[in-house]
Each structure stands twice: as C-alpha cells, then as structure tokens.
Design goal:
mainly alpha, 6 helices, about 80% helix, about 0% strand, globular, membrane, transmembrane helix, Stage V sporulation protein AE, SpoVA, Spore_V_AE
C-alpha cells in the first residue's frame, strides 16, 4: 500500500511542478516538455534520479522526467558495454519499447474513434 502512496505523491509532485510552470510562467508547453526531459536526463546521469525512482516507482518513471532518466540510463549502460557508440544508441534502445507502445496505442485510438474539430 505504501508503494502506491509513494508513487502517487512523487508523480503528483512532478505534475504539480509542471502545472505551476504552466500557470505562473510564460513558458510554452513545448519548452516545459524539453525542460522536464532534460532535467530527468541530467539527474539520471548524475545518479540523483535513481533515488527518486527508488522511492516513487512508477510515479517517477512515467512522467517526462522519467523518459529523460530512461534515456540517460540506457546511454550510460551502452557506453559501458559498447564504448562511445553506446552514447548514441543506448538511449534509443532503452526508450524503444515506450515509444513503440505510445505510437501503437495512439494509432489504435485514432482508428477506433473519430476526432471532431474544436469550435
């Protein structure tokens, strides 16, 4: 039960930061997205985000910061295994399943439902 509560709290805090950035700054959603992914990558490379993941579980890995963390983790792993080439392939390899799932389910939803234009 504590695992679910920690995931909810950590994920909620990350999302709350995003909402505050949307409400209180002039940053566009695209810039906030880049900021979150970059922050996750930097914190992941420094080993700091792993501690957040250990506490928050899916609450830390599902948001955009978790995507950046996953990229950094994959790149570091592949650099250890394949050398410099791993810096270019590791992040893609680590994030491939998540990206594939997002594209696949997005496509299924676009086939299943007909979107309507906003008026």
């Amino acid at each position: 039960m504590l695992t679910y509560l920690n995931a909810f709290i950590i994920g909620g805090l990350i999302c709350a930061v995003g909402q505050i950035l949307i409400d209180k700054t002039k940053l566009t959603p695209a810039r906030i997205l880049v900021l979150f992914v970059t922050t996750g990558t930097i914190l992941g490379a420094l080993g700091i985000y792993q501690k957040v993941v250990d506490v928050g579980g899916a609450g830390a890995t599902v948001p955009l910061t978790g995507f950046g963390y996953n990229l950094a983790k994959g790149a570091i792993k592949d650099v250890d295994q394949y050398g410099l080439l791993g810096a270019f392939t590791g992040g893609i390899r680590a994030a491939a399943a998540g990206i594939t799932a997002a594209v696949f389910f997005g496509y299924i939803m676009s086939v299943a439902f007909t979107p309507k234009a906003k008026r």
